[in-house]
Design brief:
The chain is α/β, with parallel strands linked by helices and 400 residues long. It has two domains: 11-19 and 272-393, Aspartate Aminotransferase, domain 1, CATH 3.90.1150.10; 22-270, Type I PLP-dependent aspartate aminotransferase-like (Major domain) (Aspartate Aminotransferase, domain 2). It has helices spanning 22-28, 38-55, 68-79, 93-104, 126-135, 159-168, 219-227, 237-244, 255-271, 273-294, 321-332, 358-374, 383-393, and strands at residues 11-13, 61-64, 85-89, 108-112, 141-147, 149-150, 155-156, 174-178, 197-201, 213-216, 297-298, 310-314, 334-338, 347-351. The strands form three sheets. A seven-stranded mixed β-sheet has the order 2-10-9-8-5-3-4, sandwiched between helices. It has a five-stranded mixed β-sheet with strand order 1-13-14-12-11, with helices on both faces. The radius of gyration is 21 Å and the shape is globular. The chain starts with 10 loop residues before the first strand and ends in a 7-residue tail after the last helix. The mean pLDDT is 97. Bound molecules: pyridoxal-5'-phosphate. Residues 49-284 form the Aminotransferase class V domain. It comes from Marinobacter psychrophilus.
Length: 400
């Protein structure tokens, strides 16, 4: 419970849902229209075309009225058959949940990973995937499934390296990638990276409320969907692709979230995707500068794959990260991400994505710094001042 009567805006600095801009809230507040009428069809065609730009694809993108978990399931059941082996990589909590889902769906997941807790502080090791695929001479592995931006740890894996690993092994497995928290924050290229199904969601870089998720497809994925035998109806791509040709869905879509999506796509395209990506990179450097000034560790131990979306801040031995987070919430009305799964209590996560700016981040870092001190954590210096200095000295990069 808050320590005081709330005033001003709550600081939602979890790595998704991210704050929804007023412009999107207004777009979503318009009256719901007939989802079989001409006005809706025009909207559907417009946003199905625009959303491809964000995924950097010319291929179909399916939009589901569901959270990201639904799109995970859709990707697997549309392409796989009972008992198919899928190779997954343990980067953190979300990779682990996806692996559990594969098991529940009747697939045979094989979970690669670094030993111990190491894998939760690093990205996907493409060499391990290549080694495993080389040994699979009978091609019993049907898909490689990896998380691009692991939201539980703050690690953005190198997807082109995974593609290269599959190709180097001469293996036909499909590549399925979860970029639920990476899209419209980190660089992502569905076509150029040779991804077969990209899974994403609305409540992160797209700045929307939860409730929409995506599957971007490839020809190979669509071909696989024609022979895959896992039961599917609501999630089946074929009927959706058919209805989408005219801008409609086979069922009632979430019309008002689609208004929001259309507005979000306009905002991102007006700014330019390269600029959006540069902005997130810069914020991430500012936040890591603060963590370093505090003398604390970032969860990710591989600088090449630091996430531009969020930063995991590791607590010193004996400090309960959840207690620190709770205090920060109660005293400063600031929400931070908790440590999930194996990292529970060991770290908290600062989201720096979507609709924020230098000063909202400085405020969030201010809440963290004060909360850490009040929790008795010995800080080396001021992260707030270090980040402010970084933001002052490094003007936003304009890509036009
Ligand atoms: N995958 C990743 C990387 C996520 O960050 C999340 C949610 O945070 C999910 C999957 C699950 O998505 P949802 O909670 O929208 O079902």
């Amino acid at each position: 419970k808050l320590d005081f009567h709330p005033s001003g805006r709550h600081f939602l600095q979890i790595p998704g849902p991210s704050p929804v801009p007023d412009r999107i809230l207004r777009a979503m507040s318009l009256p719901t229209i007939d989802h079989r009428g001409p006005e809706f069809g025009a909207l559907g065609l417009e946003l199905l075309a625009k959303v491809k730009v964000i995924f950097k694809t010319t291929q179909p993108v399916i939009i589901y009225p569901a959270s990201g978990t639904g799109a995970w399931e859709a990707a697997l059941i549309n392409t796989m058959s009972t008992g198919d082996r899928v190779l997954m990589f343990e980067t953190g909590h979300f990779a682990t949940l996806w692996e559990k889902m594969a098991l529940r769906l009747g697939l045979e997941p094989e979970f690669l990973g670094l030993p111990g807790y190491e894998g939760w502080r690093a990205g996907v090791q493409a060499n391990m995937i290549e080694d495993r695929l080389r040994k699979d001479t009978g091609h019993t592995i049907k898909a490689v499934c990896v998380v691009h931006n692991e939201t539980s740890t703050g690690v953005t894996s190198n997807i082109p390296a995974v593609r290269r690993a599959i190709d180097a092994a001469g293996h036909p497995a499909l590549l399925l990638v979860d970029t639920i928290s990476g899209l419209a924050c980190a660089d992502y290229q569905h076509d150029a990276w040779g991804v077969d199904v990209t899974i994403s969601g609305s409540q992160k870089g797209l700045m929307l409320p939860p409730g929409i998720s995506f599957n971007a497809l490839s020809d190979n994925a669509i071909a696989a969907s024609k022979t895959s035998n896992l039961p599917k109806s609501f999630w089946a791509w074929d009927e959706i692709l058919e209805a989408n040709k005219n801008g409609y869905w086979p069922y009632t879509p979430n019309t008002n979230l689609l208004y929001g999506l259309n507005e979000a796509l306009d905002m991102l395209l007006e700014e330019g995707l390269e600029q959006v990506i540069a902005r997130h990179q810069r914020w991430a450097v500012g936040v890591r500068t603060a963590v370093e000034a505090w003398g604390l560790e970032v969860q990710c131990q591989e600088p090449d794959v630091y996430s531009p979306v969020l930063t995991g801040v590791v607590m010193p031995e004996g400090v309960d990260a959840d207690a620190v987070r709770r205090l920060i919430y109660e005293r400063f009305d600031l929400s931070l991400g908790m440590g999930l799964g194996k990292s529970k209590g060991k770290m908290f996560r600062i989201g720096h994505l979507g609709d924020c700016n230098d000063l909202t981040l400085i405020a969030a870092l201010g809440g963290c710094e004060a909360g850490l001190k009040l929790s008795g954590v010995n800080l080396k210096g001021s992260g707030v001042l270090a980040a402010l200095e970084y933001f002052s000295q490094n003007r936003p990069h304009h890509v036009n």
